[in-house]
Amino acid sequence: MTSPLVSIRGLEKRFDLSGSLLEQITFEGGRFRRKKEAVHAINGVDLEVQRGEALCVVGESGCGKSTIARTVMGLLSPSAGEIHYDGQRIDNLERKASLPYRRKMQMIFQNPYASLNPRMTIQQTLEEPIRFHHPDWSPIQVRDKIHEVMHSVGIDPDWGSRFGHEFSGGQRQRIAIARALAVDPEFIVADEPISALDVSIQAQVLNLLMDAQESRGLTYLFITHDLAVVEHFGTRVAVMYLGRVCELADTKTLFATPRHPYTQALLSAIPKLEDDRPNHIRLKGEVPTPVNLPSGCVFHGRCPYANERCRQEVPGLITTDGGNQVACHAVEEGRL
Amino acid sequence: MTTATVSRWDRFRESFLWYSFKRDKVAIVSFVVLMLMVLAAVFAPLLAPADPYDLAQINIMNSELPPAGLAGSDPAFPLGTDAQGRDMLSTILYGTQVSLMIGFGAVVLQAALGILFGLLAGYLGGRVDAVLMRIADVQLSFSTLMVAIIVGAVFKASFGNLMFGEIAIYMLIFIIGVSEWPQIARTVRASVLAEKKKEYVDAAKVMGFSTPRIMFRHILPNTLSPIFVIATVQIANAIISEAALSFLGLGMPETQPSLGSLIKSGFDYIQSGSWWITLLPGLVLVVLVLVINLLGDWLRDVMNPRLYKG
């Protein structure tokens, strides 16, 4: 097995809720106490993205998928853990030292209505990154590059003098993709890139991303909550719950034989045309708050197979016979 | 769908700004009056019949002549003369120039300081934000006029009257500019706080752009609309502040009068019947401030997105 392009090791991210020192002090039971609270968005995630694949990260709202995307891109700094790109640690680099990685790693955002600067024309939006990363290029080279990326995403280069608000959502997302492609990246983090789009446009943008992957040899970290997209797009899938990866497998394997009880429940919720399976699995309760994490397995409160060990001990990822990597004591013990 | 490139002028002609301007009679009239006054002030040396700064042209025998049409008027002085025999028309034209220079200069200084500090406070946040905004709070808790009077008095005492006359205009710009920057800084900070959460800022960060580049090239252009509105109204405020200071004797000297110091110089003669020395520059000042404020109101209505949408 070759070395991974991007590897995330023991990543944790907490967001402090308690504010300044004065706000942390509370009066409880006749004594002043300093109280600190934090949202535990990511709690120890290990992921490796192999060159050329599309690793999809799925999970419900608030499970930390977007936080992973933003931490990998350096928009957030990790509370603990490391991020490596091609063998080099990148999460602690100075801005100057990180510039080469900025060019190799790009990001596509969820909301195409907010991701284009409203005061810049499309031409300016695309030109700035190219000029910034290739200060030695001649104006003709820059222009050719802009034309090339605009063509490749299906936007007429003649529209360059227009502003973002003159385009539809799908067109804007194409322009955002063109901006990411303009610096010739190897690795693209896509944070729910199609969830804000009209259903009829989603497939077009998805196909565009797949074409770009093929022609440019891109590697994707694809964040989504749409399982149909995962099945269509992903090479491998990581299922997240409350800031942890609970199952990681090849797309086909995962959809055919989900092992983790949460994955099973998630997959059973996909609506099917022929509803041959009687009932989807209903989980009891709600997702616990990420402020006070449950002890042991984060899923134990809602898991029908949970026992005492699940309440005490945090499960690690183990590889099963089918090739799934599952973080579940019940699977490990053969109870499931 | 193919379109050729559209020029900035075409874009402006299709904009909502131009559309609403064309339909607003008050805005058109205000704009025309303001432009006439600005042009008259800028070209005062060409338009004015006399040069009020040139002592050789002044004859004390012509002092306190009434405007044309009144008994005892001289056709050479259509708006009469002041107590020193200066032609009122010329003096008012030059005075408007001085007042406008102070107004624009002070607002440019305010905007420069306000935008810089507002951007830093809003974008960097944390301690920088806390320190800058506390300074702004302290500054706002003093009245502009009070600060200006103290600083002006100190300047006047330490430089002497002659020297003070030469630097008065820069000093007034400095005082009014520095004491009003928190208004703009707060507005900029509020806009920056809203803008910096948008994804285009994240996209710029992901590209590896430096913090100053993101602040000035990506965020600043998106916070300019409210600054325009405030700056317009602040020009009028600065002109009034200057007039008030001049009236108190801490503004422009009489040898280089602004509208405010003209009003003040005439005030001593108003009881002796020479009302025009105070009234005419006063009228010009009122009209000038009024049209700027009317334009500011119109601009605020146009640029307020809630009114725009509704």
Description:
Chain B: It is found in: Cell membrane. Chain B: Keywords: Cell membrane, Membrane, Transmembrane, Transmembrane helix, Transport. Chain B: It comes from Marinobacter guineae. Chain B: It is a multi-pass membrane protein. The complex is a heterodimer of chains A (about 325) and B (about 300). Chain A is about 35% helix and about 20% strand. Chain A starts with 5 loop residues before the first strand and ends with a helix. Chain A is an alpha/beta fold and about 325 residues long. Chain A has an 8-stranded mixed beta sheet, sandwiched between helices. In chain A, strands 4-1-6-7 form a 4-stranded antiparallel beta sheet, with helices on one face. In chain A, strands 2-3 form a two-stranded antiparallel ribbon. The longest helix of chain A is centred in the middle third of the chain and has 18 residues, at about 200-215. Chain A contains 12 helices and 14 strands. Chain B is an all-alpha fold and about 300 residues long. Chain B has a domain at about 90-305: MetI-like fold, CATH 1.10.3720.10. The mean pLDDT of chain B is about 85. The interface of A and B includes residues 98, 106 and 111 of A.
Quick description:
With 336 residues, chain A is an alpha/beta fold. Chain A is 33% helix and 22% strand. In chain A, helix 5 (139-152) packs across helix 6 and helix 6 runs parallel beside helix 7 (199-216).
Using only C-alpha atoms, the radius of gyration of chain B works out to: 23 Å
| Class inferred from helices and paired strands of chain B | mainly alpha
Helix content of chain A: 25-40%
User: By helix and strand content of chain A, what is the structural category?
Assistant: alpha/beta
Alpha-carbon distance between the two ends of chain B: 30 Å
Mean pLDDT of chain A: 87
How big a fraction of the residues of chain B is strand?
A: under 5%
CATH architecture of the domain at 6-234 in chain A: 3-Layer(aba) Sandwich
**Succession of helices and strands of chain A:** EHEEEEHEEHEHHHEHEHEEHHHEEH
Give the overall pLDDT of chain B as a whole number. Answer: 83
Strand content of chain A: 15-25%
**What is the CATH topology assignment of the domain at 92-304 in chain B?**
MetI-like fold
- CA-CA gap between termini of chain A: 30 Å
The geometry of chain B reads as: globular
Could you estimate the helical fraction of the residues of chain B in percent? over 70%
Membrane topology (chain B): Multi-pass membrane protein
Transmembrane segments (chain B): 26-48, 98-123, 135-155, 161-179, 227-253, 273-296
Keywords (chain B): Cell membrane, Membrane, Transmembrane, Transmembrane helix, Transport
Subcellular location (chain B): Cell membrane
